[in-house]
Amino acid sequence: MMNSILRLPSNILLTAFGCGLLVLLCFESVLAQRVNYESLRGRDRVPTAYFDYNVIPAASPGDNPELIVSFKVEHDFLNFRTTNSDIADRKFSADVEIGVEVFNVGDRELTREEREELHPDRIRASARARRAEERASRQRNQQRESVGREFWNGTAYAATYEQTKSPNQYLQGYITKDLPPGEYEVIVRFNSNQRTRNTSPRRISVPEFDEHPKTQIYFLNETSRIDTPSTGSLINMGRNVFYGKDFNALMMIPDYNEASEYRIRLSQIEIQRGDTTEIATVYDEAVNRSDIHNGLQIRIPGGNQGVVQFAMEDQSSPYTYVLKRIPNNRFENANYRMELLETDEAGETSLHGSRVFLNRWVDIPISLLNVDVAIGMMRFIVDDATLSELRSGNERQRERKFREFWNERDPTPETEYNELMVEYYSRIDHVYENFTTPRTPGYESDMGKVYIQNGQPQNITRRLPPNQPAVEVWEYSSRRFTFVATTGFGDYQLRENM
User: Which of 33, 321, 330, 407 has CA 20 to 30 A from 378's CA?
Assistant: First the structure.
């Protein structure tokens, strides 16, 4: 989309994704009068390390099930250093060691403090909070039995300093450990060039798969085929899936009964202070016979670099799985609970298992984090009367009008993702990053305004006339814009529009 020309009359708007936006808009609209685009940029980027925990049955009879701790670490979370390498893409490096320690906790119930620490974002806590947590963790560890440690070592490389701070480049890998059935706590210790951080303890249950199987739910990236034998990669995003992208759900069915009917239900939920409220059921589909695979065997081909690959083969395994594509492009960026349900011959319905996840919009344009900022940025493509109407009313009314405005112009109303609106607000991010000068933010510059309304030029020509300001010409299929430098700091003024 960024290469296409998007011209907007003064009374028309682009559209991007529909009501899912409002989950984030509502969250960020507090003190809206004090929030602007620059402040949103400052608070938006928190370096992130994702950790996910999955258990798969033993590959062979008599073996233990396997715990898989996978991780995906953004470059700006790592501690990079310059290198002396002559290789172009290895000018910076970050050595990483990740250790996983597992403790046997038996049937002991976690304390309230321990349960609170299981929040997946605790790794982002302040230094004081982390030190307090580490002290408490050491005290608990003295009362628990450690069943072993496993380590992963690797190096992330970057060609430029900008790449070392990029949230869109990652170091990925995983650690596996065989564990007998039981209850465990897992702590991950993360070290990058002498910078160490710990995750909070994560409670893990390893089922007795042979005697008392328990539903396991795995999320796989969407593939062109979901039959077997095939290979699928785990979505390595902690408790998240990618907003706007379909994915595959692989679910074990304990004690499969051919006479029963199975279905998958997906409910949008709201989580506040540990309490969960169901908002609405957004998906409730029967499992087709073609989605059920008897005797399916899951194994990991080998290696511990990159994403986890599941090799799924039809063998004489005692396990039955559902493998079904989930139409996630229809759902908002919000929290959800997925459930596997069985209805037997007597009409009794039982819940086999569930998994909570966040449909996360990783690369959301900055303006969409706040409804008032998003409306304000529409001034480049709507007239003053329309802008004034959108700004009127209370917060809920503004959100409703914003949503309606964009929904009316959604090029793909059958999906939640609105490509046209994303394109528009992505252009605002682009011009801020590329055309901002000490005097003018990129979206207020002449070049920025032209780019917002027309997109990436098909051709750019720059001239440096003797003893005259620099001239830059942007050419589109039927239009041409000429800019002239006004200072030596990247400021350009539009002089000709043809």
Answer: 330
